[in-house]
Design a protein that fits this description.
Chain A: InterPro entries: NADH_Q_OxRdtase_suD (IPR001135), NiFe-Hase_large (IPR029014). The structure holds four protein chains of four kinds. Helices cover about 70% and strands about 0% of the residues of chain B. The relative contact order of chain B is 0.15. Among the domains of chain C are: about 80 residues, no CATH class; about 40 residues. Helices cover about 65% and strands about 0% of the residues of chain C. Chain C has seven helices and two strands; from the N terminus they run H-H-H-H-H-H-E-E-H. In chain C, strands 1-2 form a two-stranded antiparallel sheet. In chain C, a hairpin with a 2-residue loop joins strand 1 and strand 2. The radius of gyration of chain C is 25 Å and the shape is extended. The chains are: A alpha/beta, B mainly alpha, C mainly alpha, D mainly alpha.
């Protein structure tokens, strides 16, 4: 009796969802962030529903299985626009974005009410290494440091530290591809000394990101600059949303998301920028890390390069932009702070350009060489720049390293624009009150 | 005697612990909503529903945790919050335990909190909690000096290390006016003790929940409640040390105390929502290089003020 | 001296707690646990001190030991192999000497407790121990107190000099060589490994400079 | 008596905290090994997390011990401060001045940075 009462109450909580992002799953993430009855959590231990959003490529199945099994009992899964694994029975699959929150709530409620069983464990229940207790009390392995006590070897690497040369243990591990502070799909092998990154090697590049369709159209025919610039600002705001969430400014991050959602030529950045400056985002957060040298900056391109002092911008070559007297603004330091200041300036600039362009009805003139929010696209689209992290991050403190990752837009851009938006999403976008996001 | 000196204090602290933790949860949701977080359902029911869900979820385990420490840490943190609440005076006579050295006892609660939070991060034997635990120690060992200076500052005019005396010494003028640097500095200590908002170095988002990233179910519930209870205990101490505790016209003492505690809580929760998380390295430098000299200044100010 | 039976019971319980946790320090494999067992032991002693009416010293004990044991745990973990005791090990070394020293210490202290003549001067109930401590510090013991300040300053400077690797003039060990194994000999350390480190170590440095 | 009350409160809250964890967990089976693996976003660790962890701020902790030792003198001092007046002020001023030298020195040597 008491238990059913408890479960009834439990079913009314905000649904804690751990999102596993597949390709283009970040759209669903942003949609859910603004859904009142959903709570997005960073650790599977804190979740009741595992959401697989978007198609997960086969090389990430193994990590997905691991994360799937890390949710504590009871939990359930929901597959959004991806094919559920056949051996999971009765797993719901959702296609439409606006049905997603409802489906998550239903899944949680049914789980609590006992109408749905907890998802089965996929992996076999055995320790990572075969091991039998060997110490006096059944603990331990062989000798002081040998063996695999409790199934895992002990940390014993004996590398000299890169800062003060003390020889202590370093910890090597692979993080991702479903770590919330990483770009979707990225996985890295990291060695830490204390909380300092000693080595970083990106093993799986983040999924290529899709840009707003207007950028793909712009490579075929002239498009209104207003539309292009709004899409650019929206892209940057989406990145800002992620970074602010990571920095512990949840409310401001939602503001950024809302601004992106309702972006029009009459929007202004002033309020959000003032709020960020006043909160001390540029002074208190981890902002000094990730300085790019000119070579690295050229490699990644786009706003990150301009934040490092390079004033390359393909918009300069466009007659339409010249009519609007566009000139790129730059920062000099090339660190995380400079990148966010650059990003805010560019959002601001984009909004101004969009306003002017709409008034004067200016169109782009170049189609072969356009500046995307991710960087220049001339012969080739912006390519994956995640190997850059291997050079930039060693030597940084953990929080600084992750703030740097958030400030760098490293993912490549998908090459064709056609298939990135399903008709359903376009409907949502164009449907007036259902104006969710692009 | 038994009733008055044992049962009543225990009941009082238990009541404050539960009600206080609930109020913190509700207030934080209200503030988040006011700043534009999407909300659905009743704010009043939400903490209960969440607690119920955590009770139905199974507790997680890691491969080779330090079991005893892992389960003890949340309970110990709760116990420290209870001890903190026990030294808070509600009126001249209504105080759970009126120890002669209650100010020092509160100081040791702060120091022991560091131990417990470190233990919570350490005992999971997992990377992200471990980093959270170590980060917290850097913070905990930095704020402790500031807290000592500030609390010695309020002990000066009271000529006592007892919170009841500290409150009584504010009859003419509250310490928040007499020692203007004190309360702001002490609020920073409070954010640190409960690793709330800008000083949430232990359970931060970049560590996927830090020391709490591997726990689920009932242990997580206790940890969350303990954290909220610690906020309440802290606001009680801050209200007695700086806002004149039970002193105030018209209303009865305990009511004044409750109002003042709510005010402190509100400020803490607001700060938690408005400020970004401070980088750990910068946090240590800030504490030692900026805030410590300021608390020095506060003490000198308090000393001169007490002599005049 | 008149006190209730409660105080006696409390004393016995606390003394047992202090001894048992003190013993556990040497019976656990985990450095962190050992540190915090020691902390519990100290806290029990602190409560006994409060029972002895040393209210300030007792509470100060909690305070000091909490900080000190945390720092001790940090350093134990940093410098001991197998800090969590995942592998079994022996926490006791030089047992014979230790046992001998323990017995001697116990006998001496026990003899003092049993045979020493304690002064029988009951203090008046109105005496405030904290206040008298403060008066003592500002009166006769002022010189000791101030010299304690100097000693602590020396400690601080010593700590900084010994432990701080990167001073304001750059890395402390920069350009220094390990001493030779024999007077006038080559710097200690394996030369082959040094060469390897040239490659390996500098490899990292390139990244972040 | 105060001590006894405090002890009661301590035991009660500690007990409540443990009971809330223990009661529902009595009947729960041990989670599977894959569940017990540390969460790393789908990644795996090479070893146990427990290790000789490089505490980056270790000089600061040593400095704190020295400083805290000194702070403990200040509590009794605070109690008699008003009574003693100017003398106490001067004495403590001298004491703190000596120790501030230590802090300033440590700061100049970069103790408050991650080593």
């Amino acid at each position: 009796m008491a238990v059913s009462w408890l479960r009834k109450l439990a079913s009314r909580t905000q649904v804690p969802v751990f999102p596993v992002l597949g390709k283009q799953g970040d759209r669903a993430l942003r949609y859910l962030a603004l859904s009142p009855e959903i709570e997005l959590v960073d650790s599977p231990r804190h979740a009741s529903v595992l959401l697989i959003a978007g198609e997960v490529p086969a090389d990430r199945f193994e990590p997905l299985r691991r994360v799937h099994d890390q949710l504590p009992y009871p939990f359930t899964t929901l597959w959004f626009r991806s094919e559920p694994w056949p051996h999971l029975e009765n797993v719901p699959r959702v296609e439409k974005l606006d049905e997603l929150p409802g489906a998550l709530i239903t899944a949680h409620r049914e789980l609590m009410a006992g109408q749905r069983d907890s998802a089965p464990r996929i992996l076999t229940d055995k320790p990572p290494n075969p091991w039998k207790g060997e110490g006096d009390f059944g603990q331990g392995g062989e000798g002081m440091m040998g063996g695999v006590p409790y199934g895992r070897p002990m940390a014993m690497n004996m590398q000299d530290d890169i800062r003060d040369g003390l020889t202590l243990d370093s910890l090597t591990f692979r993080l991702g591809p479903f770590f919330s502070a990483f770009p979707p799909g990225m996985m890295a092998e990291i060695t830490l000394q204390g909380d300092l990154v000693q080595t970083w090697s990106t093993q799986l590049a983040p999924y290529p990101q899709s840009l707003d369709p207007v950028f793909f159209t712009a490579r075929e025919r002239p498009v209104p600059i207003a539309e292009l610039e709004l899409a650019r600002a929206r892209h940057h705001l989406h990145r800002l949303f992620q970074a602010l969430r990571l920095a512990g400014l949840e409310n401001a991050s939602l503001d950024a998301l809302r601004l992106a959602q309702n972006l029009s030529t009459s929007s202004t950045l002033g309020g959000l920028r003032r709020r960020l400056v006043r909160s001390g985002f540029f002074r208190l957060s981890s902002m000094e890390g990730g300085v790019l040298d000119p070579e690295q900056a050229r490699q990644i391109g786009g706003p990150a390069a301009r934040a490092a002092g390079l004033d390359d911008d393909l918009r300069l070559e466009d007659a339409g932009y010249r009519r609007l007297r566009f000139s790129p603004a730059c920062q000099t330091h090339g660190n995380t702070r400079a990148r966010w200041q650059q990003t805010l300036n560019e959002i601001d600039q984009s909004l101004h350009l969009a306003q002017q362009a709409e008034r004067d009805e200016v169109y782009t003139s170049e189609v072969d060489r356009i500046e995307t929010p991710r960087g220049p696209w001339s012969e080739q689209g912006p390519e994956d720049a995640s190997p850059l992290l291997d050079e930039v991050l060693p030597g940084l403190e953990w929080g600084e390293a992750l703030a740097t990752v958030a400030s760098l837009d490293v993912a490549a851009v998908v090459n064709e624009g056609g298939g990135t938006q399903t008709p359903d999403e376009l409907r949502v976008v164009q449907g007036g009150s259902g104006n969710v996001f692009k | 005697m038994f009733l008055n000196e044992l049962l009543l204090p225990v009941l009082m602290v238990t009541f404050m612990l539960t009600v206080g933790a609930y109020v913190v949860a509700v207030l934080d949701r209200l503030i988040a909503g006011a700043f534009g977080a999407p909300q659905a359902g009743s704010v009043w029911l939400a903490p209960m529903a969440r607690g119920a869900w955590l009770m139905t979820q199974h507790a997680n385990a890691t491969e080779a945790p330090d079991w005893q420490a892992w389960r003890l840490a949340p309970a110990l943190y709760l116990a420290l919050a209870a001890i903190g609440l026990a030294v808070v005076p509600w009126s001249e006579s209504l105080v759970a335990t009126d120890l002669v050295t209650s100010v020092v006892l509160w100081g040791s609660v702060e120091a022991l909190a560091t131990v417990v939070i470190f233990l919570h991060g350490w005992s999971a034997n997992a990377l992200l909690p471990l980093i959270g635990g170590y980060r917290y120690v850097a913070l905990g060992l930095s704020y402790i000096l500031i807290s000592m200076f500030v609390l010695i500052g309020v002990a000066l005019p009271a000529e006592s290390l007892q919170f009841t005396q500290v409150v009584a010494s504010q009859e003419a003028l509250w310490n928040v006016l007499r020692q203007p640097l004190g309360l702001p500095l002490f609020l920073i200590v409070g954010l640190g003790m409960t690793f709330w908002g800008p000083l949430n170095l232990a359970d931060s988002a970049d560590l996927a929940g830090g020391t709490a990233s591997e726990i689920s179910g009932p242990p997580r519930l206790v940890w969350d409640v303990a954290r909220a209870a610690m906020l309440v205990a802290f606001s009680g101490v801050a209200a007695s040390a700086f806002l004149g505790g039970w002193l105030g016209p018209w209303l009865p003492g305990p009511l004044w105390m409750a109002i003042k505690m709510l005010a402190v809580l509100l400020v803490l929760l607001l700060l938690g929502r408005l400020l970004p998380r401070i980088a750990p390295e910068r946090c240590v430098t800030l504490m030692w290089v900026v805030l410590l000299p300021l608390s020095f200044l506060d003490l000198v100010w308090a000393g001169i003020g007490a002599l005049l | 001296m008149n006190h209730g039976i409660g105080v006696d019971i409390a004393f016995l319980l606390l003394a047992t707690l202090a001894v048992v946790t003190g013993w556990r320090v040497f019976r656990t494999d985990s450095m962190v646990r050992a540190s915090f067992f020691l902390l519990v032991s100290f806290i029990a002693v602190g409560v006994i001190m409060i029972l002895l009416a040393a209210e300030y010293l007792g509470v100060a004990m909690f305070f000091m030991m909490a900080v000190e044991m945390t720092v001790m745990a940090l350093f134990m973990v940093m410098f001991m192999m197998n800090p969590a005791g995942l592998n079994p090990m022996n926490m006791v070394h030089q047992e014979r000497i230790a046992i001998g020293a323990g017995i001697v210490g116990f006998l001496v202290l026990g003899a003092m407790a049993l045979f020493a003549v304690f002064p029988d001067q009951p203090v008046s109930a109105s005496l405030d121990p904290v206040k008298s401590l403060g008066n003592e510090m500002l009166g006769d013991s002022m010189l000791i107190f101030e010299s304690a300040g100097l000693v602590l300053l020396t400690t601080m400077i010593g700590v900084v000099v010994l432990s701080c690797h990167r001073g304001r003039y750059g890395a402390a060990a920069e350009g220094s060589l390990p001493p030779g194994l024999e007077p006038g000999g080559d710097p200690a350390g394996k030369p082959e490994e040094d060469e390897e480190e040239e490659g390996g170590g500098h490899h990292h440095h390139h990244h972040h400079h | 008596m105060e001590l006894l009350t405090l002890l009661f409160i301590l035991l009660l809250s500690l007990g409540a905290g443990l009971l809330v964890q223990w009661l529902p967990m009595r009947h729960q089976p041990m989670p599977t090994y894959p569940q017990r693996a540390p969460f790393l976003g789908g990644g795996t660790p090479d070893s146990h997390a427990w290790s000789r962890y490089h505490v980056r701020y270790y000089p600061m902790t040593l400095l704190l011990i020295a400083f805290e030792m000194e702070m403990m003198f200040m509590y009794p001092w605070a109690v008699v401060f008003v009574e003693t007046g100017m003398k106490a002020m001067m004495e403590m001023g001298m004491f703190l001045a000596i120790l501030s030298v230590g802090i300033v020195y440590a700061w100049r040597e970069g103790v408050f940075k991650w080593q």
